[in-house]
């Protein structure tokens, strides 16, 4: 009896001491409607201890983040802050002021045929963004996949998915809670985004797999011989690429490269072309000079004979394109992370680890570099004037090792489309509509960029 009483006493003491370990143990057991036993007391105590440790860890991370943030703010306090436009968005509203050849020939013919048909009555007013975006997308599909989409004539699930992804990315940027992946994944927009991604990835994955199987079956040499006389497309180049150890790209790497080329390529080029036509419509004297330069180059040639060598023989047209890219850069901002402390000429320091927002639009409109920056003046890019400026004063495709991978393709495409468009049409501004820049992933115009096209009789 004494021994039994001793054990009961010891058990009740452990009971009580365990309950006293954490004041909330009893309340937790009562809340869960559980009987007080030694095991349950220790389990609940362990869970409470774990929760407290987790809370301390979170608080520690918050304090560290705030300390780093305060340090960065202190370092960056020497930089002037632009005036705020919105109590929540800060100065984001200040980003903008208020105010391959055979492929290109193939894709453009569809668009020009549509425009000629629409302008059969004399003139037609079109939204350049809508039409040229389809043209550039068709071009990329032909050059990247050797895939004839006919997206200018009929709808495509793949095309629709690409457009939806572009819209959803911009929409997500403007809604703060959707910046968190967990919240976005379970939102309606997040589900639409995943569905669109699946469509795009399935398409590119299927094309890559089909092309890889054909290459494996024939072998590289036989594959290249079978392509003789045809255009080698982007996927062919990637499939045949190997590193120093002789290893090729995986299917996932191939898909990522193709998707990046598609997403970054069609909308930016469409924006550039649309604004080029807009600027030439506003300045008919420059438009006519471009047209005369192109006609002189094409003397004695058919349109189908326009080739790569001709692109370097359009100096004034190239100057007009570059000035438009300066005045209306398709990509207005880029971000770069400082890998080391960066000391500026005036002594200010951008600390290591800071992600910097670099305004291409601001650089291109800096009056100390570009006098009268809002004036469209192609002669800024006369070779003599161009050599007097810094190589980083004009960066529509960014600069350095992470610049745009498709800039040569984009410039060639813009030259071809512009040249052949000016041979066929006279471009005029629509005076009934006000053009206002619209800040999105690329530089657009609110309500579209509407221009009047008049078919030239000599090209009908």
Automatic annotation (TrEMBL):
<keyword id="KW-0560">Oxidoreductase</keyword>
<feature type="binding site" description="axial binding residue">
    <location>
        <position position="404"/>
    </location>
    <ligand>
        <name>heme</name>
    </ligand>
</feature>
<keyword id="KW-0408">Iron</keyword>
<dbReference type="GO" id="GO:0016705">
    <property type="term" value="F:oxidoreductase activity, acting on paired donors, with incorporation or reduction of molecular oxygen"/>
</dbReference>
<keyword id="KW-0256">Endoplasmic reticulum</keyword>
<keyword id="KW-0812">Transmembrane</keyword>
<feature type="transmembrane region" description="Helical">
    <location>
        <begin position="39"/>
        <end position="59"/>
    </location>
</feature>
<keyword id="KW-0472">Membrane</keyword>
<comment type="similarity">
    <text>Belongs to the cytochrome P450 family.</text>
</comment>
<keyword id="KW-0479">Metal-binding</keyword>
<dbReference type="GO" id="GO:0005789">
    <property type="term" value="C:endoplasmic reticulum membrane"/>
</dbReference>
<dbReference type="InterPro" id="IPR036396">
    <property type="entry name" value="Cyt_P450_sf"/>
</dbReference>
<dbReference type="InterPro" id="IPR017972">
    <property type="entry name" value="Cyt_P450_CS"/>
</dbReference>
<keyword id="KW-1133">Transmembrane helix</keyword>
<dbReference type="GO" id="GO:0004497">
    <property type="term" value="F:monooxygenase activity"/>
</dbReference>
<protein>
    <submittedName>
        <fullName>Cytochrome P450 4F22-like isoform X4</fullName>
    </submittedName>
</protein>
<dbReference type="InterPro" id="IPR050196">
    <property type="entry name" value="Cytochrome_P450_Monoox"/>
</dbReference>
<keyword id="KW-0349">Heme</keyword>
<dbReference type="Pfam" id="PF00067">
    <property type="entry name" value="p450"/>
</dbReference>
<dbReference type="GO" id="GO:0020037">
    <property type="term" value="F:heme binding"/>
</dbReference>
<dbReference type="InterPro" id="IPR001128">
    <property type="entry name" value="Cyt_P450"/>
</dbReference>
<keyword id="KW-0503">Monooxygenase</keyword>
<dbReference type="GO" id="GO:0005506">
    <property type="term" value="F:iron ion binding"/>
</dbReference>
<dbReference type="InterPro" id="IPR002401">
    <property type="entry name" value="Cyt_P450_E_grp-I"/>
</dbReference>
């Amino acid at each position: 009896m004494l021994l039994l009483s001793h054990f009961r006493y010891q058990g009740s003491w452990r009971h009580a001491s365990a309950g006293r370990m954490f004041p909330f143990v009893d309340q937790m057991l009562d809340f869960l409607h559980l009987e007080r036993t030694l095991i349950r007391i220790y389990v609940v105590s362990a869970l409470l201890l774990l929760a407290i440790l987790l809370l301390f860890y979170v608080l520690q991370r918050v304090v560290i983040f705030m300390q780093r943030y305060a340090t960065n703010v202190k370092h960056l306090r020497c930089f002037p802050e632009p005036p705020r436009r919105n109590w929540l968005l800060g100065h984001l509203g200040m980003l903008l002021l208020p105010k391959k050849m055979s492929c290109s020939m193939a894709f453009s013919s569809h668009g020009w045929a549509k425009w000629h048909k629409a302008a059969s009555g004399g003139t037609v007013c079109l939204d350049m963004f809508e039409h040229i975006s389809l043209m550039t997308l068709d071009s990329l599909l032909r050059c990247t996949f050797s895939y004839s989409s006919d997206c200018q004539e009929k709808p495509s699930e793949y095309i629709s998915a690409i457009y939806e992804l572009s819209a959803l990315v911009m929409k997500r940027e403007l809604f703060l809670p959707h910046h968190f992946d967990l919240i976005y994944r379970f939102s309606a927009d997040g589900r639409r985004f995943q569905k669109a991604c699946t469509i795009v990835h399935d398409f590119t994955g299927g094309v890559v797999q089909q092309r890889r199987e054909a290459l494996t079956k024939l072998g590289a040499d036989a594959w290249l011989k079978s392509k003789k006389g045809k255009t080698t497309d982007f996927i062919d180049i990637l499939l045949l690429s190997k590193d120093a150890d002789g290893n090729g790209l995986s299917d996932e790497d191939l898909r990522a490269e193709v998707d990046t080329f598609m997403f970054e390529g069609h909308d930016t080029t469409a924006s550039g072309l649309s604004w080029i036509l807009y600027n030439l419509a506003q300045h008919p004297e420059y438009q006519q000079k471009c047209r005369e330069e192109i006609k002189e180059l094409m003397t004695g040639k058919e349109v189908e004979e326009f080739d790569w060598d001709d692109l370097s023989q359009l100096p004034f047209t190239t100057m007009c394109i570059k000035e438009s890219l300066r005045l209306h850069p398709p990509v207005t901002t880029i971000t770069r992370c400082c890998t080391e402390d960066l000391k500026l000429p005036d002594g200010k320091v951008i600390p290591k680890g800071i992600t910097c927002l670099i305004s291409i639009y601001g650089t291109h409109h800096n009056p100390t570099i570009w006098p009268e920056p809002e004036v469209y003046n192609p002669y800024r890019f006369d070779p003599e004037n161009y050599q007097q400026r810094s190589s980083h004063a004009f960066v529509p495709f960014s600069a350095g090792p992470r610049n745009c991978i498709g800039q040569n393709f984009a410039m060639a495409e813009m030259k071809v489309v512009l040249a052949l468009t000016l041979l066929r049409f006279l471009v005029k501004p629509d005076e009934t509509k006000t053009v206002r820049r619209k800040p999105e992933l690329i530089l657009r115009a609110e309500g579209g960029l509407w221009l009047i096209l008049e078919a030239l009789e000599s090209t009908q």
